[in-house]
Amino acid sequence: DETEFRNFIVWLEDQKIRHYKIEDRGNLRNIHSDEWPKSFEKYMKDVNCPFKIQERQETVDWLLGLAVRLEYGDNADKYKDSTPDGAKNTENAAKNAEPLINLDVNNPDFKAGVMALANLLQIQRHDDYLVMLKERLTQDAIAKASQSKEGLPVALEKHILGFDTGDAVINEAAQILRLLHIEELRELQTKINEAIVAVQAIIADPKTDHRLGKVGR
């Protein structure tokens, strides 16, 4: 939603990024103005965002990364020694490590989750949702899922995370997640480009018929 998007940008600037002085945020806060896109484009340049105004998902991701970095920088002492709540309680940690032990297959939420997964994985729906689960546990399905994709090695030390958790392992995990997210965005962009090319090939291939005195199919 356009209004929510603009409010989100204003909130990030007001609450987290704070690149402008308060008195200089008027144009960005005027979300109902026809000139807002120009103000937003200028804002992106001012904060050195590398993406174009049309690349909204990438822009949002980048601005959130900037906000997190600034938030961490302002409260480094608070966050560097933070410990996940589950790790503070040994009993809870043990339960979290084995979430399937107390799984209730008759729980309505579990059934709804299975149906949602079936839609995502394009599994044929069945009256018995347990049958759908078994369909993905056949030998062929497991063998297919075990196939790994060839990839290029990545030097994580060359990629800047933007913040420091104080734990080298967590930092590396965060870098990997960020790179995986970027890879998904690139794959999506590739599919979009392929779709555009396919459509253009169809509509930009007119055939001339002199007998009809027109161009086209």
Name some characteristics of this structure:
217 residues, mainly alpha, 3 domains, two-stranded antiparallel ribbon, 11 helices
Report on this structure.
- It comes from Oriolus oriolus.
- Pfam families: RLL.
- Belongs to the RTRAF family.
- The chain is an all-alpha fold.
- The protein folds into three domains: 2-78, no CATH class; 106-148; 167-204.
- 61% of the residues lie in helices and 2% in strands.
- A two-stranded antiparallel ribbon has the order 1-2.
- The longest helix has 36 residues, at 168-203.
- The two termini are 39 Å apart.
- The model has no long low-confidence stretch (mean pLDDT 76).
What are the SSEs and their pairings?
Blueprint: H1 2-17, H2 26-29, H3 36-46, H4 56-74, H5 76-80, H6 85-88, H7 90-97, H8 108-121, H9 129-135, H10 139-146, H11 168-203, E1 208-209, E2 214-215
Helix pairs in contact: 1-4, 8-9
InterPro entries: RTRAF
Family: Belongs to the RTRAF family.
Protein name: RNA transcription, translation and transport factor protein
Uncertain residue ranges: none
Which series of helices and strands comes N to C?
HHHHHHHHHHHEE
The helix content, as a percent range, equals 55-70%
Strand order of the largest sheet: 1-2
Q: Note the total helix count.
A: 11
Total count of strands: 2
Write down the domain tally: 3
Question: Overall mean pLDDT score?
Answer: 76
General form: extended
- In percent terms, what proportion of residues is strand? under 5%
Terminal-residue CA separation: 39 Å
Which secondary-structure class do the elements indicate? mainly alpha
Q: How many whole angstroms does the radius of gyration measure? A: 25 Å
| Biggest pleated-sheet summary | 2 strands, antiparallel
InterPro entries: RTRAF
Family: Belongs to the RTRAF family.
Pfam families: RLL
Protein name: RNA transcription, translation and transport factor protein
